Amino acid sequence: MSIEFIIAIGIVVLALVALVIVGILMGKKVGSLMKEINSTQTTVQDQITHFTKETDAITSKIDHMTTRVDSMTKDVAVKQAYISDFTQTTADFGDSINDLKQNSTKVASYFLSSSRRKVTVTPPRITKVGKTALKMYQSRKNRTKKRFSFN
């Protein structure tokens, strides 16, 4: 064996040892990098889960609010119908009262002029006031019945 051959084998052995050492060092670096990647992946998954739960909670609240708004809208529509009904009835009642005021002097003069004579003609507006009052009573009764019925 020549010296050159022994030196060549020594260099090859040293190169192999150096490669093994560099491989071990690289393995440690890659191992710590893989741990960091796994830790980051776990953190990201936790954040995704957290924000998914938050989104579900917000969606639930929005659905609840939408349901309440729909209910309020229906209630407002019913109350507007009642108000328009009441406004119409009030207008009719006011017209009847005004006609009664206008005709009250005629009725009073009939009663005063002939107390013995019976008035054969009923003033037309008095019956209209009575009918309007009866209609108001019946609509109020129907609304109350409808409001408190459990169908």
Automatic annotation (TrEMBL):
It holds the Pfam family DUF948. Keywords: Membrane, Transmembrane, Transmembrane helix. The chain crosses the membrane at residues 6-26. InterPro entries: UPF0478 (IPR009293). This is Uncharacterized protein YoxC, contains an MCP-like domain. It comes from Carnobacterium viridans.
